[in-house]
Amino acid sequence: MSHSRFESIGAYLPSKVVTTDELLGRMKERPSFDLEKITGVRERRVRDTRPETHEDSFTLAIKAVEDCLSRSQYGPEDIDVIISTSISRSKDATRLYMEPSFALSISRLIGAKNAIAFDISNACAGMLTGTYILDRMIRSGAVRNGIVVSGEAISAIADTAVNEISEKYDRQFASLTVGDSGCAIVLDQAVDENDVIHYIEMMTAAEYSHLCLGMPSGKTQGVAMYTDNRTMHNEDRFLLGTNTQRKFLEAQGKTFADEKFDYVIHHQFGAAAIPWMNAIAEREFGSPMPPDLRVIEKYGNTSTTSHFMVLHDQLSQQSLPAGSKLLLIPAASGIVTGFVSTTISSLKV
Q1: Which pLDDT band holds residue 1 (cuts at 50, 70, 90)?
Q2: DSSP assignment of 104-129, as one string?
Q3: Parallel, antiparallel or unpaired: strands 16-19 and 95-96
Q4: Is the pLDDT of residue 223 over 80?
Q5: What's the whole-model pTM score?
Q6: 3 state SS of 41
Q7: Measured between alpha carbons, how far is 88 from 154 in angstroms, rounded to an integer?
Q8: Does an H or E element contain 170, and which?
Q9: Are 307 and 128 in contact (CB under 8 A)?
Q10: Rounded to an integer, what is the distance from CA 146 to the centroid of its chain?
Q11: If DSSP codes are grouped into helix, strand and coil, which group holds residue 232?
């Protein structure tokens, strides 16, 4: 069976920087705890909201696709499929769209006239889920290549949280960690072992889906996210992914140590949680975890794009040696978990 690979990557970040201190300064009453110390988020990028230059989810997605295709061997007319995975779905400034699909609108705007286009939604695991679907489509021979894209103007939930938080423990605190971004990747068929997606598996434990919900606010006209962090981010939830990966490897007669990963990229939702997740994984796998790569300090939690913003950032700094083997681990509302194993050599920014 043929494998797929990451052929090109593109990203877009708004130029406006908002520090955590500036964000908390807008609240009527600052939290009693040190949010920056707990989450590791020092600053995040926030979209332009001026009427003449407004940046919405669609704008961020388009700029990421254009950046991605600028270094791809494929032009828009060569693309077989476009999968849009945005959680926030603002277009024409602040209007929220479910139909027509973002993917169809993107294909028309960039001139991908031969592409199948559809949207999926899987919370912060959106781009990895899109990668999972596109990988399977390429492996089966249904398509030759495709784009997975997401534009996240998700800081709207931070604005709602700033205006509404009034309790010492409020389910909107996680909303204060998010940042805006756009990211896009092109996948095509792997030609050798130097650039390849070895495997990608996803799973959802739907009994925990109530622990993090995005919806219209019950207090104002804003969009809000309500997260039960104490219940969601505990050892039992983190073990879902670790146990699934261990069983996956055991079925192939392998151990985690056999994989020889060079780096791990977690979902960028909390700097304090990542070392804890790594410690749990080390205990369960009986093997050291590779160094983890992050951007949470400067970009915050960019939701669906977070793993690929880390990858884009590392490639921009030319700090990923050719032949690096990466493990990408989602952690999303749903609860969604899983694992992606890939080797990267020729991917450049």
Answers
A1: low
A2: HHHHHHHT-TT-EEEE--BTBTHHHH
A3: unpaired
A4: yes
A5: 0.95
A6: coil
A7: 6
A8: none
A9: yes
A10: 18
A11: helix
More confident residue, 273 or 57: 57
Distance CA 21, CA 7 (A): 39
Number of Cβ atoms within 10 Å of the Cβ of 143: 18
pLDDT of 172 = 93
Whether omega for the bond prior to residue 335 falls within 30 degrees of 0, making it cis, is yes
Angle between helices 306-316 and 126-140 (to 10 degrees): 80
Q: Tell me phi and psi for residue 197, to 5 degrees.
A: -95, 110
Q: Output DSSP code: residue 291.
A: P
Sign of the torsion angle spanned by Cα atoms 17, 22, 26, 27: positive
Number of Cβ within 10 Å of residue 306's Cβ equals 34
Residue 65 is given by DSSP the state: H
Strand partners, 181: 152
Phi/psi at 85 (nearest 5 deg)?
-130, 20
Cα dist. 232→212, 229, 274 in Å?
Answer: 8, 5, 14
How many angstroms separate the Cα of 235 from the Cα of each of 71, 178, 196, 265? 41, 23, 31, 19
Q: Is residue 4 within 8 Å of 195, Cβ to Cβ?
A: no
Q: What is the dihedral of CA 255, 260, 263, 266, to 10 degrees?
A: -10
Q: Confidence band (pLDDT; 50, 70, 90) for 62?
A: very high
> Per DSSP, what are the bridge partners of residue 236?
none
pLDDT at 89 over 70: yes
3-state secondary structure of 297: helix
Which strands sit side by side in the sheet containing 336-344, from one edge to the other?
196-204, 336-344, 324-329, 263-266
Helix, strand, or coil (residue 134): helix
* Cα separation, 151 vs 132, whole angstroms: 18
CA-to-CA distance for 57 and 49, rounded, in angstroms? 12
Q: Give 131-189 pLDDT, tens digit per residue.
A: 999 999 999 999 999 999 999 999 999 999 999 998 777 899 999 999 999 999 999 99
Give Cα 182 distance to the centre of its chain. Answer: 10
- Residue 305's nearest CA partner among 175, 91, 150 is 150
Residue 344 has pLDDT above 70, yes or no: yes
HEC assignment per residue over 184-230 = EEEEEECCECCEEEEEEEEEECHHHHHHEEEEECCCCCCEEEEECHH
